[in-house]
Amino acid sequence: MRSKNALTVRLPRGLGNNVIHAEQKTAEGLATLCDAQEADIAPIIDYWYSSSEEYLADMGVDLARLGTPEQARLRYLRALRNGDPAQTSILFAIKLDGRFAGFTLLNQYEPQTNYSHWHIADSARRRGGISTALYPHRIKMYFDTTGMERLIHQTRPRNVGVNRMLDKYVGIAETSFVERPDGVAAAGIFNMRYVYRRDIGRLFEIAGRFTAP
User: Is the pLDDT of residue 35 over 80?
Assistant: First the structure.
């Protein structure tokens, strides 16, 4: 049975509302983290199933785990945030100047075992510093909306861009072979990084070095 933490969490203002968790000015525009809505699922499905086989292979996606578009759509529908801090999967949208730009999925298992997935769907925006600027806001959002105690980042060493961004905030704890990674990834070698609730303040301090005038 899932262990529930009694911490106070931020609840949505009402089902169907587009709850905004953070806004941050970036070189690409105003970046926003908010609860995903059903309308956000179509561009997520398009991201997965219109991407090239080369792109998916480079990410290390297991196509069997990804499944069909309909299976993926149902997974994301179930992940729309319902206000339960113990919800198994929670889907959030990333927007730029109010337009869909990507998404992040938080998967919860136990207080110490939780994983997040982050995708900038718009390929033209992937090198614009959005992930770096939103990182501390993203982590705070995960902890604010759940009772989890630790987040695990699980990234392939060859994913240079993501690892370079994470290196700015949290070091690699270990690198090891994972038979069944979280999400839709195939087995392989992964860098593991651990983030705790107590780290939030430090992450914002680090972010200040990148956003200071």
Answer: yes
